[in-house]
Amino acid sequence: MSAITTHVLDTSRGCPASGVLVVLEVGDGGGYREVGRGTTDDDGRQRGLLPPGERPLAGTYRLTFHTGAYHAALGVESFYPTVSICFEIRDPAQHHHVPLLLSPYGYATYRGS
Asked: Is the pTM of this model over 0.90?
C-alpha cells in the first residue's frame, strides 16, 4: 500500500465513489510536480498513488480529485469540477490518509488513519 492514500465517499448517495481520478503532486519550487495518479476502486479507495515501500519526502502535497467527471458519469449536475486538497508531510515515516466526503454541491476532508 502507498504511504499516501485516500478514500472518497459520496455522501449524497450514501456509498463509496468509485472511478474518481485522483492526481498526487508534490510542491516543487513555485509550483507542483505530479508524482502519482489513479482512480478509486469499487470501495472508493486509492491505495497506489506511490509505489509500495516508497516514502514521500517532507513537504507540501496536493491531491486533486476529478469530481465533475464522476458526477457527470452519474448524470448528476455538480458545482465543483475538481477538488484540490493541499497538505503538509512533516514525518515521512507516517502513513498519510486523506479522505474526501463528497456531494454535488459540497465536500469535506480530514486527516484519516
From this structure: yes
